[in-house]
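Obj.: predict assembly geometry.
Materials: sequence records (below).
Method: joint structure prediction, all chains together.
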Amino acid sequence: MTAGPWKMESQRSYFGKALIELGRRNPNVVVVGTDTTESIKTIDFGKSFPDRFFQLGIAEPNMISVAAGLAAAGKIAFAATYSVFGSAHTYNVIRQNVAYTNLNVKIFCSHAGLTVGPDGATHQMNEDIALMRGIPRMTVLVPADGPETAKCVDAAAAMKGPVYCRFSRTNVPTITSPEDDFAIGRARVMRDGSDVTLIGCGLMVARCLEAADSLKRAGIKARVINLSTVKPLDTATIDRAARETGGIVTAEEHTVVHGIGAAVASAIAANHPAPIAMVGVQDVFGESGEAEELLRKYGLTAEMIVDGAHDVMKRRDRK
Amino acid sequence: MVDVSEELIASLKQKAVTLRKHIIRMTHNAQSGHPGGSMSAADIVTALYFHVLRVDPKNPTWPDRDRFVLSKGHACPVWYAALAERGFFPVEELLTFRKLNSRLQGHPELGTTPGVENAAGAEGQGLSFSVGLALAARMDHKPWRVYCILGDGEQDVGQTWEAAMASSKYGLDNLTAFIDRNGIQQEGRTEDIMPLEPLAEKWEAFNWHVLTIDGHDFRQILAAIEEAHRTKGRPTAVISRTVKGKGVSFMENKIKYHGAATSDDELKLALAELEAQEAAI
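Observations (raw structure tokens):
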């Protein structure tokens, strides 16, 4: 992947390490997995705390309900696997046993989006944000990079109730630092600007920063927002951006149907209607290919974000 | 066979009739709900709530209580009736079942109804939930036990067998599953919809300790629970042969009463039959 000036790092590694550190601090934390534990790095938690780790085989619905039972008995249960298995195959189990019950189940899923790569469309989960943000009581997190993934682990454990957090299989640019503030429900302005706003989540935040650099060279000052919490949505920050810049581009490694673009559009439509362009997967399935090739083919690039910015500014100025 | 007194059996029989009367009234009042599968499970639920479970109605979330999980959530009228009779909430509240603003939802909701331990309605999730509870008890070295009632229709659900495998993998001898084998699901006989037999052999093949009992015989129910307690290293499945709609002659073994309430006339007949049984005990 193109990285700009950034170091490329694994969100899974940050996840695995954060989980162990959390486990050391809090004996109430347990982890369940489904034959993907080595890949997703929860196996290391299992080695450190064998009594608090449960390998449940290829049985994701069971994994979610077992996590719910553990949580009902007072545990903080992390259920982790690939996002297609953890969010889609399990949807009604999450709905009934985790969200309706409002239990402390934290579903952390890697392998989200197109950048799963050669495994192809069956494994490229581009609909999980849509599924999860539609469930009442669910908190939905999309960390931009490794350090944020670690912060999501701690923040999810610290809050009461269900959480869904998705991240990438591929290494992603590290654009935040461990010292940066992070809070669930707060979108972070990464760069200020008054001409247009670029709102991204996950690995697309780095591409928003690249797009902002490119727009800057053309004399356009773009604000960049890292939307690491999709739900509850930070409507104050989004409204302010709509009001102050008058045009928004969203960027997500996810379908534009019910993703962050749709969430942002609903929010600004209520308060400060402004032109919006959505960069994302355009209601299609992916295919096999390398991560970077797929992002290019499906239009998830800094160039597309720049084009979107010009488009919304044109539409805004036509008014 | 466990040595239990005639008095105990008589009092459990009385209580079971009381629960069945509540089930008939609740579903009639709501003109919806699932009386058939509630009545088939009524004796097992009675044995658990009025003789076995260590629970505290004044402190429903007491951490060391035994856990009762109703996987076949549509049978919640029998659960609500037992909880009310056990003092978790007023008996009068039973008639709010399925009404707006009631604590007694059409299917169980965790956190709303005192004493309810799980959410169910979509079938096949309760045994997995019970596995999580049983693992937690063992992890914390707690003596409390988990009892789960599954429907036989639920044996169709793949997740039930995922949970069965996980239970035996972890040797959960603090978990007992009752399978309410009434032979009828929503659209017909289980053996026509999706044949389950040989069911006991299936559970045995999943490395459970398996017992088959008459699910309306209190001595057999209590003996099965005793045997489950004595069984180490394996969970116990109690295949409980039951009659859907048990206790009201015109409802017994009728597919219709899986999900249909009684009419006004049927209500009178049903209550008269149950009162006659009560008087005969």
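Conclusions so far: Chain B has a mean pLDDT of 97.
To do: check interface contacts against the pulldown list.
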